[in-house]
Amino acid sequence: MTTGEGTIRLRPPRNTPAPRAVGWWRAQWLLLTAAPVAVLGILGALIAPARFWLLMPAAVIAAVGLLCAVLFPLWWFRTHRWEVTGEAVYVSTGALLREWRIAPMSRIQTVDTVRGPLEQLFGLATVTVTTASAKGAVQIEGLTHEVAAELAERLTRITQDTPGDAT
Amino acid sequence: MSTAVDSGSDWRRLHSRTVLVTALVTAGVAVGAAVPVTVALSGRLGYAAAVGWALAGSALLVCCAAAGDYVRWRRTRYRLGAERVDLHSGLLLAKRRSLARERIRSVDLTAHPLLRILGLVSVRIGTGEQTGGDSTLELDPVARAEGERLRRELLDRAVPEAPGTHRDGELATLDPRWLRYAPISFAAPVLGGTAAGGLLQISEWVGAQAEVIHWIADRFQDTPLVWAIVVMVAVALVAGVIGALGLWIEMWWNYRLEREPGGTLRVRRGLFTSRSLSVEERRLRGVDLVEPLGVRLAGAARVDAIATGLTKDEERNADHNTLLPAVPRALADSIAAEVLREPVTPTGAPLTAHPRAARGRRLRRALSVALAPVLLQAVLGLLLTPVLLWTALACAVVGVPAAVLLGLDAYRSLGHTLSGGYLVTRSGSVRRSTAALQRSGVIGWTVKQSWFQRRAGLLSVTATTAAGGGAYTAYDTGASEGLLFAADAVPGLLEPFLERG
Fold it and tell me: Does A103 sit within 8 Å of B499, measured CB to CB?
């Protein structure tokens, strides 16, 4: 793209996720890698004739998974941002596929706070803001419990004050 | 509206003929099952005994079904209150469902042939909710007049008359000439394939598959293989075309699109099964002009409604939101304008083309889809048998030009603009869709940019909405230009998050 006067960009939202989120993302990658590697590894140990063809992909998956577990969480920590203004919720996510989502306050229908088992371990929570669109949900990941609770309460208060049926 | 209070709080039942309907439908199923059973049993028990057993079994089945439906009928009541519509049903577990009348957005009447003969319809009352299954009430069946009454009372609201000179009453009726677009839809080859597959399947059930294949092989004894294939494909296609025509007539016969006083659009259609679909104009957020490739080449287009709260069985009934079947493009445009109460349809507005970089992306994508099977066959051919190398070549010769044409066409299709109160996006080649969405119906934005898009200076802007597909996307717009488009479409929403460099 030409960089000139007419260039318009989306600015990054103001707030970062909790630094602990890096550990949480890393744990997700490791679990995701461990499952197929373990299956292939056990099969490789038991089935002698096919050992090479089972252990080789296991090693490749393990290497790629480890690399992703090291790199992607750091990258995500630089790109994941969120912000709540009086008018809208604004979130940016993704590394290779960047995504920016904006949901106006007046159209918010529900505010959910979710703490998965792994998130519990890291003391994190995810706040999901849904609108009447089946495809318009906005997720804010990697918040500490306190921030998430405060945010959910604030969003609920603002949306209750906003009239309209949000469609 | 006034009768709503009068008919106040009396509970009503479904029509008692539902027991008869269930008995007849079950009898039909029983006959279908009894014939093969009788044939199978007669070998072992003798003919008379087999018939006796089959009759007894059928009678038992029909009685059970009728008794079950009788209990269901006894236990089901509904009421049109001043504020709410209630439905009580359930055998062991009493179910009570209640909808607020002001949230009701659609009342659809359907009657399959048996219901029509008996003067009944089944009614589906839906609200605007998209989540959960608790948002629809089904009354199956009630008398036809009662169905009409429900529809009128539930949807007739005193709506302030919208500006513009657009007329009430009939907007479009069936023109039998539209039938010519039926065979060029995708239904024809699909139905043809299904017919061929169905023939083989049924012949297998009766244990005659080998004979059928032999018979076909005998017919082509002296003809070369290529001709045999050509003839068979042609036969399947003809069957498909006939099937598509039949299907179209069943679906669209007696088609009428009307605007009723009180601001409701109503589509009525169907030869055997009659359907009546009502869309309240208040929840109409725009229209989608859909042009499948064959239909587009013939200069025609179909009009779909973009409305909130259409019942979510679109998977089962894909044309639930179709306002107008494929008709000549000019007519589709004028009906779309009429539906939206606009002087000219926003879907016809001149569109901003997307940057040339988008063309490369379309071409690369189309080519990679075309070349994947070629590559696979080539690799397998090198490893296993040279025959695959020739089929790979054939695939490449056919696939690559087709991919290039489709890719270029997909690029030409890309476009977006703002036209009056509407945001217009267009994309797609095999199924080109031009969606005009009310700007006030946009309830959020999603901007996506892959690493490749960023290098090419492109991004995709998606307007999310409560209506229709939930999201309408301008794919591969110029990075700055797409953001400006979104910022202009809904003033104030995106603006605070933009920075100008």
Answer: no
E strands present in B370-468: 415-419, 422-427, 431-438, 442-450, 458-465
CA–CA distance from B495 to each of A68, B486, B487, B488 (Å)?
Answer: 35, 9, 6, 9
> Which residues have CB under 8 Å from B12's CB, separation 6+?
B77, B78, B79, B80, B146
Nearest by CB to B446, from A85, A99, A167: name it: A99
For residue B128, give the nearest of A5, A135, A167 by CB distance: A167
Q: Show residues of chain B in contact with A6, CB under 8 Å.
A: 480
Cβ of A88 and B471 within 8 Å? Answer: no
CB atoms near residue B386 (< 10 Å): 8
Q: Residues of B with CB below 8 A from A136's CB? A: 443-444, 446, 464-465, 470-471
- CB contacts of B466 in chain A (<8 Å) are 131-133, 166-167
> Which residues in B lie closer than 8 A to residue A134 (C-beta atoms)?
130, 470-471
Whether B480 sits inside 8 A of A90 (CB atoms) is: no
Contact list in B for residue A99 (CB cut-off 8 A) is 446-449
Closest partner CB to B451 (pick from A3, A96, A102) = A96
Subunit contact B501:A10, Cβ cutoff 8 A: no
d(CA B124, CA B344): 33
Nearest CB partner across the interface for B445, out of A8, A96, A102: A102
Residue A69 and residue A26 in contact, taking contact as beta carbons nearer than 8 Å: yes
| Residue ranges with strand state E in B16-173 | 77-80, 84-89, 95-100, 104-111, 120-127, 136-143, 169-173
User: How close B356 comes to chain A (CA, Å)?
Assistant: 12
Question: Would you say A32 and A68 are in contact if contact means Cβ atoms under 8 Å apart?
Answer: no
> What are the angstrom distances between the C-alpha of A96 and each of A75, A99, B151, B306, B499?
9, 9, 51, 32, 22
Facing residue for B443 by CB, picked from A2, A99, A132: A132
B469–chain A nearest CA distance, Å: 8
Site of tokens 């699909």: B190
CA distance B12 to B390: 70
pTM, entire model: 0.80
Q: Which amino acid is at B151?
A: R
Question: What's the per-residue H, E or C state across A78-135?
Answer: HHCEEEECCCEEEEEECCCEEEEEEEEHHHEEEEEEECCHHHHHHCEEEEEEEECCCC
Q: Give pLDDT tens digits along chain B (501 positions).
A: 333 434 446 889 999 999 999 999 999 998 888 888 888 777 777 888 888 888 898 999 999 999 999 999 998 999 988 888 888 887 777 788 888 887 787 788 899 999 999 999 999 887 765 544 556 788 889 999 999 898 888 887 655 555 555 667 888 999 999 999 988 877 777 888 888 888 878 777 777 778 888 888 887 777 777 888 888 888 888 888 888 899 899 989 999 999 988 788 899 999 988 888 888 888 889 999 999 998 999 999 999 999 876 655 444 445 578 899 999 999 999 999 999 999 999 999 999 999 999 999 999 999 999 999 999 989 988 888 888 888 889 889 999 999 999 999 999 999 999 998 999 999 999 999 999 999 999 999 999 999 999 999 999 999 999 887 888 999 999 999 999 999 999 998 999 999 987
Q: Compute the distance between CA of residue B83 and CA of residue A144 in angstroms, rounded to an integer.
A: 44
For residue B456, what is the nearest residue in chain A, using CA coordinates? A1
Distance CA(B489)–CA(B481), nearest Å, equals 12
